[in-house]
Amino acid sequence: MRGRILFVFGVALGYLLGTRAGRERYEQIRASALKVWRDPRVQEQVAAVEGFVKDKAPDVAEKATAAAKKVSATIRQARGTNQG
Question: How many CA atoms lie within 13 A of 6 on its CB side?
């Protein structure tokens, strides 16, 4: 019984110390990531990518719709039902 109590205590202590150390490291990583994200050079690239996506989104949507219609027609034809 004493061994089990010591084991549970050891697990609890390890968990407590591990989460504390893990939380500190998490906060360090988070702070570094925010620093990079807020860098003006990074934000310039984010804006450039957003603009690119806005320009290309209609073309991609059109091609995706056409491809979906083609696949749908192929499936209907393969099933032998040409309903539409």
Answer: 3
Please give the full DSSP string across 7-71, using - where no structure is assigned. HHHHHHHHHHHHHHHHHHHHHHHHHHHHHHHT-HHHHHHHHHHHHHHHHHHHHHHHHHHHHHHHH
Alpha carbon distance 84, 74 (integer Å) = 12
- Ramachandran region, residue 77 (left: φ > 0; alpha: ψ -120 to 50; beta: rest): alpha
- pLDDT single digits (tens) 30-54: 999 999 999 999 999 999 999 999 9
